[in-house]
Amino acid sequence: MQNKKSAFLLLGLIFLNGYVSLSLELVILRQLGFYVGSSAVITSIIMGTFLGFMSLGYFLGSSKKISPKNICRILGISFIVIAIFSFLAASFPLISNYFTWLYRIGATRAIAQTFIYSFAMLSIGPFLFGFNTTLLSRALHEHNTNYTGTIMAWDTIGSVLGSLLTTLILMPFIGVNYTVAAIAILACTCAILAHPRVWTILASLLILAPTMYINSNKYQRHNFGILVNNANSTISVSQYPNMRILNMNGLPMSVYVPATNTSAEYINYINDNFLYTMPNDHVRKILVLGAGGFTAGLRDEYNDYTFVDIEHTLKDISEEKFLHQKLTPNKKFIVQDAGQFLKNTPEKYDVILLDVYSNSFQIPEAFITAEFMERIKSRVAPDGIIIMNVIATPNFADDFSRVFDNTFHAVFPANTTRQIIGDFNPWAPPNAVNVIYVYYNHKNDNRIYTTNKTPVIYDRY
To answer: What domains can you pick out in the chain, each with its CATH number?
Structure first.
């Protein structure tokens, strides 16, 4: 009976080890996505580092120097260290500081930042996950040498549940911050179960105290103004004497100046030159992809606006904490991925505003492709307008600015303009600013003027 209880406990620890490892990996992928993006390259670096050090743990856990009688004590220490690194590697306030330091030391490229972070923060934890699995397997084989399949099954089940519960339930409903705390609690629970001693309990309490404090809603709201911290976004509102700033994932996304009912300079440009100038001869349909703080067309109560964003809390946060006013009845909010919305909607829009390239750190790669732009083009009405706001260098001083421009003109070869917002010195060091790309959906026969044929007198308006 004692052997059965011991085997059951060891299988439970294998299950929890798999659960915690996958859950932590997904939380880190979510947290880092806001700083380095979520491209295949970035994901492969994080996952490769995670799996590489885990494999090393598998290998070293089989060392004959580890005495079977010391396995429980080693497991207790190991799970305590995992709890420490879960706190250090996944807590949003600490990650914000890490990336501030990386920029200060000159590590500004996402790939370099990801490698540095991965080797500093994703080495010991994953190593110990693999190490623990091997130690637990060794302990179980003391009971039954045929446990191999059972061990693999429970480890995999733990990983599957860690994946599903973390992304579908924990992060959406309790928030990423409390998911981090839950991972640390589970790791400490494993430590106590593996080696139930007073020091294990005390060490767990010493780790969980700062983990719970820094990841509490109260701390993050007081120190960072964080109002939402779910699977999609970390949202806060900064209050200044003459303006409010809506921050998403640690970066400013929208500005509102209550005294003038205006917004960021690029939104003011779009409002003043495109949205507020529309004639009132009939109601026009405007589609805004990337809702931000709902400042696009804020004063327009006549035309029909559809805002699309994947973050479901944006409307309530904007109305209650950012704008301090309700959106007018002519504005509706749809919670959906922009690509899926464009794929499914049958509507044609008079104006489409694409405002998802809102900073130079978080570029949604699926939305900068020619295929995505073709999808937008298919949704604009005849004589309609497509407006894209992108953060780029006005003088094409970097690869992204050049390739984005090439991509845009591959899809929209004619009837386009490009407006730089703010002051611009082409001779100064490269500086990314808001650049507005505009496409006018007018008929174009692609004629050009040549020395032999120049009917300009008939073409002029």
So the answer is: 2-224 (1.20.1250.20), 234-451 (3.40.50.150)
